[in-house]
Amino acid sequence: MLSEQLKEEVAPILGRIPSGVFILVAGNEAGQKTGLLASWIQQASFEPPQVTVAVNKSRYLNDWLKVGSPVTLNQVKKGDGLLFKHFGKGFDPDVEAFDSIDVAESKNGLPLLKAAMSSLEGSIVSSMVAGDHVIYLVDVTAATAHQDIAEFEPFVHIRKNGFNY
Known about the structure:
Blueprint: H1 4-14, E1 19-20, E2 22-27, E3 33-38, E4 41-45, E5 50-56, E6 70-75, H2 83-88, E7 103-105, E8 111-113, E9 118-130, E10 133-145, E11 156-157
Antiparallel strand pairs: 1-11, 2-3, 2-6, 4-5, 5-10, 6-9, 7-8, 9-10
């Protein structure tokens, strides 16, 4: 457990580490699909192309994410009002997460969100527990630009406090 003094020192600095905002899309064996607002996603490797995705341990989505599970990562654009609000509220497993959202089917069978700047497709190759989160390593197998790449301006999340969202 961190001391209060250390928390006060670390919190404002840790919170200033920038990260992109994405909608993580995954499915389960029963055919359900959902999306989750995720802001701890970072490129982890050039060859093969890989990213890490951190998901809070309290999220039911962890039960769906196993080695080999397909995912899509849909990059939210700066100033987005649709995806951030829609997926930020979260969904129960039995609720349709993509109502009123324009989607296309990815090569791995999961939705690509057309309102996103871009989408990455891949599958989980490993995971590890990191405190109150699980970190998944994803092999990137395909990418789709939904807008002109020259126009990309990603939504970057910077927190005031490094100990909460």
